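Please fill in the sequence for the structure shown.

STRUCTURE ENCODING:
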C-alpha cells in the first residue's frame, strides 16, 4: 500500500466503529468512514475531547456537532504547500490527505523532466494536485464542474504562493472540456484524474463511474501529447479495484504509448495502532 510519511499538520490518530479520529492542525475532528468496520477499544482520550463530530443522517447527508468553537476555516501545511480547511456539509474538509502520495509522484516526474510539462487535472476539486504540480514547475489546467470548488482551489493557490504561476481555471464538465481540447489541438504531457463515483456537471450532466470510465479514458488518450509522461487515475468507488483500473490504463494508454502501468491501494498511517487505513485506489501509467 502506498502512503505518505511527510504530513505534519494532519494525523489519523485512531479509527473504530465506523469513525476516524483526526487532527487537522490544532483541530480534532471525528468523521465517519464506512470502511472502518472494526470495533476496537477507544483508548485515546481525544475521542471524548474532539472539537466536532460529523453525524450521518439516515435519510442522507448529515451535520456537524460542534463541541468546541472552531473557525469557519483554517490552514494546514504539507511540505511547502498551504491548504485552507473548511468543514463541509457532507463530512469533507476540502482535502483528502491520502492523496499526498500521488501529488509527490507527479511532482517527482515534473521536476525530473528536461522540459516544462503541461498537466491536466480533471475533477480537480480544491486544487491540491494542481498546486503541487505548479510548485514543481508544471503548467496546469485545472477543471472541475463546481464553481465553488474552483474558487476554493484559487484560494489554496494564493495561500501556497502559486496563484501567478501558469494555470488555467476551468469550470466545466470534464468530458465536454476534453473533447473541446482535442478539437482545438491542445495536448497534455500528464493527466491527473480523481473522478467521483457519481456526479452532475454544471448543466445537469450525469456521471456514473463504472459505466463511463473506460470511454472517458479513451477520450483522455486523445489529449495526451506524443511525449506524454504520466496518467494518474484515482478512485474511491468500492467496486472498482486497483487491478481493474490498471487493466483499463493498460489497454487504452500503454497499448498506444508504451511505458508501464501499476496500481495499488493508497492509505494513511494510524498513529495509535501503527497500522494503515486503506483510503482508495490508484492506477498509474508512466513512460
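FILLED IN BY: designer on duty
SEQUENCE:
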Amino acid at each position: 500500500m502506498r502512503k505518505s510519511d511527510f504530513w505534519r499538520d494532519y494525523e489519523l490518530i485512531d479509527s473504530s466503529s465506523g469513525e476516524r479520529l483526526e487532527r487537522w492542525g490544532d483541530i480534532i475532528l471525528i468523521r465517519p468512514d464506512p470502511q472502518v468496520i472494526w470495533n476496537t477499544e477507544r483508548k485515546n482520550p481525544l475521542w471524548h475531547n474532539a472539537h466536532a463530530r460529523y453525524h450521518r443522517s439516515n435519510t442522507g447527508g448529515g451535520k456537524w456537532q460542534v463541541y468546541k468553537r472552531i473557525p469557519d476555516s483554517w490552514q494546514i501545511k504539507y511540505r511547502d504547500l498551504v491548504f485552507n480547511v473548511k468543514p463541509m456539509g457532507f463530512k469533507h474538509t476540502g482535502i483528502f490527505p491520502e492523496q499526498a502520495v500521488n501529488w509527490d509522484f507527479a511532482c517527482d516526474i515534473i521536476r525530473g523532466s528536461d522540459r516544462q510539462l503541461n498537466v491536466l487535472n480533471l475533477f480537480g476539486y480544491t486544487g491540491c494536485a494542481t498546486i503541487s504540480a505548479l510548485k514543481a514547475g508544471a503548467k496546469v489546467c485545472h477543471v472541475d464542474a463546481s464553481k465553488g470548488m474552483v474558487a476554493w482551489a484559487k484560494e489554496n493557490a494564493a495561500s501556497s504562493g502559486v496563484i501567478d504561476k501558469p494555470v488555467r481555471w476551468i469550470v466545466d464538465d470534464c468530458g465536454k472540456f476534453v473533447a473541446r481540447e482535442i478539437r482545438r489541438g491542445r495536448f497534455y504531457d500528464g493527466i491527473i484524474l480523481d473522478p467521483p463515483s457519481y456526479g452532475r456537471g454544471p448543466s445537469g450532466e450525469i456521471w456514473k463511474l463504472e459505466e463511463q470510465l473506460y470511454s472517458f479514458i479513451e477520450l483522455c488518450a486523445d489529449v495526451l501529447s506524443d511525449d506524454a509522461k504520466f496518467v494518474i487515475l484515482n478512485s474511491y468507488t468500492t467496486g472498482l479495484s486497483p487491478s481493474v483500473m490498471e487493466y483499463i490504463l493498460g489497454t487504452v494508454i500503454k497499448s498506444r504509448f508504451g511505458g508501464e502501468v501499476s496500481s495499488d491501494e493508497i492509505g494513511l498511517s494510524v498513529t495509535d495502532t501503527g497500522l494503515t487505513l486503506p483510503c482508495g485506489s490508484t492506477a498509474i501509467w508512466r513512460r
